[in-house]
Design a protein that fits this description.
This protein is α/β, with parallel strands linked by helices. Helix content is 25%, strand content 18%. Helix 6 (179-190) packs parallel to helix 8.
Length: 418
């Protein structure tokens, strides 16, 4: 007789109901997630922006993790420095020598910040490609160069490149995408099952740079932009906690920002007639190519002393700038004194704002670095370091082998890593 039937028979004889065994529900197993490394770029953020009143989230992350002042690479512009951070190779070697540039191998073309042809980018491998090659799924929520089919060649009618590779997940930059929407995209990626969940992510914010250019680095509007980005990073932290997702957050900037005024303008047409040269870039520095047959005239004019500006032929650019060997660097570089502005002609209006691109040792050009998470020790203040060290740091956290071809190692972070 089965046990259940026997119990019923006993209940009939004794007039009592059998006791029913209570089986406790089995709890679903809790997933133990592998830490994700999130590299966050805050365009134009200086180290002194991190104060409890303006950026409480980053201030807390710095106090509980690691912080430092980070020296950008020259030129202290957005694309050269975010690409340096991504590749561990300074602009003179990684090929992105300016926000605008030319290459003799592509006559008639000019690189701009909208250029995604791998020809311009292939000289140095970004960290998301190194990670993908090692089997580490990566996702980029904006980062200069992250939309490029790296390593690709040629071009089809649809803008695809033979042999090119991108992160497993990536987004084409659009400034209209808000800070909260960018965070939402990252969180959605991390909600995925483990098989398709990224282990390395980039996240980029341009709000601080935009505000500081228009209003100046110390303006209330710039402080509001810092708070906006800080709040978005705080929401990211809360979402990560809700997911049970441990994360190493590495927050960096490409450069700082200096006050400028149109009253402090150097007019190039007062030094050299405009028909004797071409301007590749102009502003905090000027990249200049002489017109054919005007090389001697340009040299004579630019070699003289100029108030608030220094000019060098490419071969004589000071070694401290680590710039000038790449074929994309123009024939002449003129660098303004911090706070001054180089323009083709004298300004016709007055105005103030913010700018970057100055000497990479200028205090105003120094960049933010704050990090925290399971890979980092708490409460460590590091000495200043060059931004070429970020790529080696990410390699180490991801478990990738060191790359001796880079311009730095992760040694500066030894006191900060667990």
């Amino acid at each position: 007789m089965r046990l259940s039937a026997l119990l019923l028979a006993l209940a009939a004889l004794t007039g009592t109901a059998p006791a029913v065994a209570q089986i406790a529900p089995v709890a679903a197993p809790v997933e133990v997630r592998t830490p994700v490394t999130i590299l966050i770029g805050v365009d134009g953020a200086r180290p002194d922006y991190v104060t409890p009143s303006v950026a409480p989230v980053l201030s807390r992350l710095a106090a509980q993790g690691v912080s430092a002042s980070m020296q950008p690479s020259f030129p202290t512009k957005t694309f050269p420095n975010f690409w340096t951070i991504a590749t561990g190779v300074r602009p003179d070697r990684n090929g992105i020598v300016g926000n605008s540039m030319e290459d003799a191998a592509r006559p008639g073309e000019r690189f701009t910040m909208a250029t995604d042809d791998p020809f311009w980018w292939n000289a140095a491998k970004p960290i998301w490609i190194a990670a993908e090659e090692a089997g580490i799924r990566s996702a980029t929520m904006f980062w200069p160069g992250s939309n490029v089919a790296w390593g690709g060649t040629g071009k089809s009618d649809h803008g695809t490149y033979a042999g090119g590779r991108r992160p497993s997940d990536w987004q084409m930059f659009a400034q209209a995408v808000t800070a909260d929407q960018r965070v939402d995209a990252v969180v959605d990626w991390l909600r995925r099952p483990a098989a398709t969940r990224p282990r390395f992510v980039t996240l980029y914010f341009d709000d601080v740079d935009s505000a500081a250019h228009e209003y100046g680095p110390a303006a209330p509007e710039t402080r509001a932009a810092i708070t906006l980005v800080d709040t978005a990073i705080g929401r990211l932290q809360r979402e990560l906690t809700a997911l049970g997702q441990p994360a190493n957050l590495i927050v960096v900037a490409d450069h700082g920002m200096a006050d400028i005024s149109m009253a402090r303008t150097i007019a190039l047409d007062r030094i050299l007639p405009a028909d004797r040269f071409r301007l590749i870039e102009v502003g905090t520095y000027a990249s200049i190519e002489p017109m054919a047959g005007q090389e001697a005239a340009v040299s004579a004019a630019l070699s003289r002393r100029h108030p608030h500006m220094q000019c060098w032929p490419k071969a004589a650019i000071p070694a401290r700038l680590r710039y000038g060997t790449n074929p994309r660097v123009p024939a002449w570089l003129c660098l303004a004194e911090t706070g001054w502005w180089i323009a083709p002609t004298a300004p016709t209006r007055t105005g103030t704002g913010g700018a970057h691109g100055y000497d990479d040792t200028a205090p105003e050009m120094q960049a933010l670095f704050v990090a925290g998470g399971p890979a980092f020790r708490p409460g460590v203040k590091l000495p200043a370091f060059r931004n070429t060290a970020i790529h080696p740091l990410v390699r180490r956290i991801l478990g990738l082998p060191a790359d001796p071809s880079l311009d730095a190692t992760a040694a500066v972070f030894a006191p900060a890593l667990k």
